[in-house]
Amino acid sequence: MKRLRKRCRTFLEGFLLINLIWLTAHFLFHITVIPNPIDVYRNSGTLIADRIGIHILYSLWRIAAGLALSLLVGVPVGMLMGYSVRANRILYPLIYFSYPIPKTALLPVAMLLWGMRDGSKIAIIFLIIVFQVIVSVRDGIGQIDPVMYLVTVSAGATRAQIVRHVALPAILPELLTSVRISLGTALSILFFVEGYGTKYGMGYYILDAWSRIDYTGMYLGILVISVIGFALLAGVDLLSDRLCVWSRKQQE
Amino acid sequence: MLSVDRLCVGYRTKKANIPVVRDLSFCMESERVLAILGPSGCGKSTLIGSLAGTVPIKSGTMTVFENGNPEPLSPKTHRIGVIPQNLGLLPWKTVRDNCLLPLRLRREPVTEERRKEIREIWQALDLMPLLDRYPTQLSGGQAQRAAVARAFILRPDLLLMDEPFSALDEITRQDARELFLSLWKRRPAVAILVTHSIEEALYLGHSVFVMGKREGKILLKTENPFFGVSDPRQPEYRQIRRLLRGRLRPDEEEDE
C-alpha cells in the first residue's frame, strides 16, 4: 500500500513536470503540432463522444491475451531451461540470438501467418514479452538454494509439488518485475500494431487523430495511454505486494 | 534399524568419475543418535544427501528394518526429517506452513490427536507467537527452532542433521542442543548428526564416527557413554575427547 501511494505521488510529480515542459514548448516553438495543454484538457469531453472506453477495452484485451500467452509458454520453457542442462544447451543460443531482434520487424510474417486482425497483433505483443519471461524464469530457477530441494525431496515431494511449493514461489518476484517492464514495451507497441486492420484500440485512436491533423485528439490519446500504463504498473505492484509478502518483509 | 551397506556416491565430470564416498558401511539400532565428525569436504553432506534422496547413489544399499522386515530407504516410503546447515526454511512460507509442509507433501491427514501433538511441539519450542512470521523475520535461534519443529512434526523414521547448530551463537547453541535433546527423548528416532564440534558429538551422539578426508572413509568408530550428559567431568570424557581430536587432525593423510 505504501508503495502504491509512493507510486501515485511519483506519477503526479511526473505528470505536472511533463505538463510544464509541454506548456513551455508550446510557447517556445509556436507550431500547431504542439498545442496548448490547457486547450487539450478543455477538449477532454470529446473522449466520451469518441467512446474512448471501447478503444481502451480493445487495447487491454490485446495486451492481456499477449501477456497470458507469454506466461503460458514462457514459464514452462524457462523452467525447462532452468532444470534441464540439455534443454538449456539447445535453447539458450536460440533465445540469446533472437532476444535482440526487433520483434516488430517480424510483423509481415505475423500478418501472413495470423492475419491482419487480432492474431498478428497479439503475436507481436507475445513475441515482445515472452523472451523476458523465459529469461527471468530461467535465471530465477538457477538462483534457488539447493537446500530447498533437500527439505522437500526428503519429505517425499513429487515433481509437481516441487514446482508448486518451491519453483513457482521462488521465481514470482522476478517474474512480476519482468512483466512490469514488458508491459511498458507492449503498451508502446500498440501504436504500431493497432495501425492496421482495425478501427479500435488506443494505437488506432492516436494514429487516426494524427492523420486527421487533429492534434488535440492525438494528445488526448497519448494522455489516456499513459494513464492506462500507470494503472497497469500499479496493478502489477499491488499484485506483487499481495503475492510476495515474504520478499517485501525482507527489505523492511 | 538402519543399515548402510557398501555405499558409493560420486559425481561425474567430463573426464572422470570422482568418488566422494566409497564403500561406506554402518549399522544403527533404532532410537539411537549417531554423530559423525569430520573435516570440511569429507563427504558428510553428500552422505546426508544420499540418505535424504537428493544425491543419487552409485552402488550399495540403504535399508530400514522395521520389525525385522527389510525395506529399502526411500523418501516415498519412509518419513525422513532433515535439519540442514542453513535450516532450509522456505522463505515464502510462514513458520506454520513451513512446519506443516512435509505433512502436506505426504498428504498425511492431520487428526485431532496429531494436531495436539503438533501444538505441543510448537509450545515446547516456544514457537506459538511466531507461527505467522516469515523466515526472514526470525532470529537465528528462532529459525533453528522452527526447523527442529518441522523435523519432529513429521514423526520421522530417520532424522538427518547437517551441522544444525553451527549458525547459532555460543549461548543459543547450548540451549538449542538441550531443547533438541529433550524433544528427541520424547520422540526418539534414528538420527544422524553431522558436526564439526567434538563437544556436540559427545553430547548428542550415542556413538561417534570420525570420517577421514578421503572418500568418506571412517577412521574411528566409538561408543559414547556421555550421551546427554551436560557437563561431564570424568577423566574418561577427557580421554575420549583427546582420542577424537587426535583422529580429526589433518595429518591423518600420511597413514593412508
UniProtKB/TrEMBL annotation, chain A:
Q: Which PROSITE patterns match?
A: ABC_TM1
User: What residue stretches are annotated with the ABC transmembrane type-1 domain?
Assistant: 56-240
List the transmembrane segments: 12-34, 60-82, 94-116, 122-141, 181-198, 218-239
Does Cell membrane show up as a keyword for this record?
yes
Alphabetical UniProt keywords: Cell membrane, Membrane, Transmembrane, Transmembrane helix, Transport
Record's keyword annotation contains Isomerase: no
In this entry, which stretches build a coiled coil? none
Subcellular location as annotated: Cell membrane
Q: Name one GO biological process term.
A: transmembrane transport
One GO CC term on file: plasma membrane
- List, alphabetically, the Pfam families matched: BPD_transp_1
For this protein, the record's CDD domains field holds: TM_PBP2
Q: What is the protein's membrane topology class?
A: Multi-pass membrane protein
To which protein family does this belong? Answer: Belongs to the binding-protein-dependent transport system permease family.
Which protein, by its recorded name, is this? Answer: Putative aliphatic sulfonates transport permease protein SsuC
According to its UniProt entry, this protein's organism is Caproicibacter fermentans
Encoding gene (name) = ssuC
TrEMBL record, chain B:
Presence of the UniProt keyword Transport in the record: yes
Keywords of this entry: ATP-binding, Nucleotide-binding, Transport
Q: Where is the signal peptide, in residue numbers?
A: none
Residues folding into a coiled coil are none
Task: Write down the SUPFAM superfamilies for this protein, in alphabetical order.
Answer: P-loop containing nucleoside triphosphate hydrolases
Q: Tell me which Pfam families the record gives.
A: ABC_tran
- Annotated PROSITE patterns: ABC_TRANSPORTER_1 (PS00211), ABC_TRANSPORTER_2 (PS50893)
Q: Where is the ABC transporter domain?
A: 4-238
GO MF annotation, one:
ATP binding
Q: Which Gene3D superfamilies match?
A: P-loop containing nucleotide triphosphate hydrolases (3.40.50.300)
Q: Which InterPro entries does the record cross-reference, listed alphabetically? A: AAA+_ATPase, ABC_transporter-like_ATP-bd, ABC_transporter-like_CS, ABC_transporter_ATP-bind, P-loop_NTPase
Task: Report the domain of life of the source organism.
Answer: Bacteria
Which named protein is this? Answer: Taurine import ATP-binding protein TauB
Biological source species: Caproicibacter fermentans
Give the gene symbol: tauB
